[in-house]
Amino acid sequence: MVAALGAAGVRVVLFKGAALAYTHYPAPHLRVRADTDLLVTAEDHYIEGGLGSAVAEVLAEAGSGTPLRRLAVSRVPGSAPVGTLMSAHGLDAEGIVATTQAAMGVRART
């Protein structure tokens, strides 16, 4: 995923748990999040009540104004291999890259 976004010209920092804060910042509890350009959440279930909803609540309550794109299953999935289902809902690497680029106003490389 990170490689695919990088190849598409998008710089990425993954927020995966507290480990990132402690490996990248000397005082992680003081790290201000005001410089985040875009947050993208991706989850393999319906959008309601998931991680994206929790992130949206925190962003709204903080008044951050950080743009958020939530990717999730958008309709009742059929029966197919996992990769096919993820792709159908834009939850594969290609779909996440496309959503991120569109949100950032980046044109896809051809």
Overview of this protein structure:
This protein is α+β, with helices and mostly antiparallel strands and 110 residues long. The protein has one domain: Rossmann fold (3-Layer(aba) Sandwich), CATH 3.40.50.920. The protein has helices at residues 2-7, 18-24, 51-62, 82-88, 93-104, and strands spanning 39-46, 68-73. Strands 1-2 form a two-stranded parallel ribbon. The longest helix has 12 residues, at 51-62. The mean pLDDT is 81.
Overview features:
two-stranded parallel sheet; single chain; Rossmann fold; 5 helices; 2 strands; 40% helix; 110 residues; alpha+beta
Question: What is the overall shape?
Answer: globular
CATH topology: Rossmann fold
Low-confidence stretches: none
Average pLDDT works out at 81
Largest sheet: 2 strands, parallel
Question: How are the SSEs placed, and which strands pair?
Answer:
Blueprint: H1 2-7, H2 18-24, E1 39-46, H3 51-62, E2 68-73, H4 82-88, H5 93-104
Parallel strand pairs: 1-2
Q: What is the compact description of this entry?
A:
The protein has 110 residues and is α+β, with helices and mostly antiparallel strands.
